[in-house]
Amino acid sequence: MHEAFFFGPTDRQIFGVYHPALGIDTGVLTVICPPLLSELNRTHSALRNLAVALAQKGQHVLRFDYTGTGDSHGHLADASMAHWVEDIQISIQEGRDLTGCRAVRVLAVRAGALLACNSVGSQVDIDRAVLWDPIASGTEYLSTLDREQASVIDTHHYLSRAEQAQVSSEYSIYGMSAGMLSDIKAINSGVYQAIDAKKFRVVCTSSAGQFPVENATEVVVPFECYWETKIDGVVFSQPVLEQLLTGLTAA
Amino acid sequence: MIEEPLQFGDGGRLFGILTKAERPANAASDSRIFVFLNAGLLPRAGPHRLHVRIARELAEIGIHSLRVDFAGRGDSLPPAEGPDQRTVAADFVEIMRLLESELGDIEVVLVGLCSGADNAVRLAPQDRRVTGLVLLDPVCDQDPGFRSRALRYSTRALLRKCTTPSKYLPWIKRCMAAMFGTNDDADGSADNLSLRDLPTTEQTRDALTTVRERNGKVLAVFTQYALEYYNQLGQMGDVLELDDYDQFCTERFWPQVEHTYPFEQHRRQLIDAIKSWAS
User: In chain B, which end has fewer C-beta atoms inside a 10 angstrom radius, N or C?
Assistant: First the structure.
């Protein structure tokens, strides 16, 4: 049971899927901030399943795609960091308007965690942020994209020299603007510091201790996601989803 | 362009997004609709957002489209059993019913990459309104000259690899597998073709024949991925031996392009090829 729709500014419509609470309504809205680029497709199924599970536990859930990604309008090349930050704020407001919920939780994945915390900061009152393998900073994210691009080029055996030079240029496979790249670079781990450490539940699939906020609750669920190498593979781990579910529903 | 999310089928079990051109190019294009089928496990947006990009650019030249999730994919509900060929066929009936109710008389072009191409081949004969196929890396039998050409390709690529020694071993392994028809899975990576529920040659021939009989047309694009079984422009036509093949089927062979189009210039190349074929 869900409802898909476009919302937000008329010139930049955001695609969203709303999962209403089933059974006893807990009055909680969870907004899912997905990861970016290839990771969006890779986690689609996992995040959809998580949304269904949360709805069954009585939460209202809103999933959405950032401007220029997934089914939302716009081209990635024209999208800006300001759009993505605003997309999260608009989605939270849309979810509140739809459901009337005051309690808002955010589930954010990878670079989505950076965006969500940058967006929420001190401006939006959320009562919990559950993060799945959060990226620590914009610089780290660009390094991740670098390695991902290198991995794609590595498996590509028949490019001409000219094409190889073309695709090896900075982040060329993503088609993001120079402005976007410099905006990403500018996000530092300070965006996490702006949020009370007690509100975080961090689920890591590699090792703990990498999240840049002291005293944040971290759980390690060993699972190889191959974030940087298998860009077309689907990431689905029931233990990870269970931990995310627990993080979002536990008292 | 107008986009409309649609839930359809029994209890709204299926999901798709209809992209309607604001100004159809002409009466014929008003009734023609491209339907994008899931590529493997990926949702309707397609790998690297390919389906979204193609759909919106087709709308700009006056062509409608639907990108759809089969049961158990994307935002469609999982089937009670499967998914398998039977559930895909049942979903297709619902898709055609939806399109008829939304657009009236329709002519459908099925677009599929990888397993999407396999499904398109199997579905085409099932409904007379399917008059076009865009097959991205469909399966194709090897022809008698395949192995010797494979050796030539491997040698050429080896020369390119000389500057990057770290690539030698895994690459040589893959070449040997292509040349000798073995699928060495020792590095833990699954063989791509073994993950697909491939149509038979007879099913492919049947699909193309029915499209030809409906005065439709086919675009088949082969990339680097297909080098395991396809390595010469025209190979599909030679293998299928269909009358008037060149009149209704356009083959493209792009060995420099990766299967899921991760590079922007290759996405652009594909979008332009489809738009030109569709116009």
Answer: C
The model's pTM is 0.91
Q: Which of B44, B175, B263, B265 should we substitute to test contact with A (largest number of A Cβ atoms within 10 Å)?
A: B263
Nearest Cα of chain A lies from the Cα of B45 at a distance, in angstroms, of 6
Q: Which residue of A has its CA nearest to B156?
A: A158
The CA distance from B70 to B93, in Å, is 11
Residue A158 confidence class, pLDDT cut points 50, 70, 90:
confident
Domain encompassing residue A221: 3-249
| CATH code for the domain of A39 | 3.40.50.1820
Residues of chain B with C-beta less than 8 angstroms from the C-beta of A20: none
Ordered DSSP codes for chain B: -EEEEEEESGGG-EEEEEEE-SS-SSHHHHHEEEEEPP-TT--TT-GGGHHHHHHHHHHHTT-EEEEEE-TTSTTSPPPSS--SHHHHHHHHHHHHHHHHHHHSS-EEEEEEETHHHHHHHHHGGG-TTEEEEEEES------TTHHHHHHHHHHHHHHHHTT-GGGHHHHHHHHHHHHHT----TTSPPPTGGGS-PPPHHHHHHHHHHHHHTT-EEEEEEEGGGGGT--STTHHHHHH--TTHHHHEEEEEETTS-TT--SHHHHHHHHHHHHHHH-
Q: Has residue A80 got a pLDDT over 70?
A: yes
Under-50 pLDDT residues of chain B:
166, 183-190
Per-residue pLDDT, averaged over A74-78, amounts to 93
**For residues B225 and B271, what is the distance between their CA atoms, to the nearest angstrom?**
19
**pLDDT at position B184:** 45
Angstroms from A24 CA to nearest CA on chain B:
22
pLDDT per position as a tens digit, A45-73: 999 999 999 999 999 999 999 999 999 99
Nearest chain A residue to B254 by CA: give it.
A158
- Model confidence at A170, pLDDT cuts 50, 70, 90, reads low
Write down the pLDDT at residue B190. 47
**Domains annotated on chain B, with CATH:** 2-139+197-278 (3.40.50.1820), 147-195 (no CATH)
Cβ-based contacts of A5 with chain B (< 8 Å): 5
Question: For B260, which of A160, A161, A232 is closest by C-beta distance?
Answer: A232
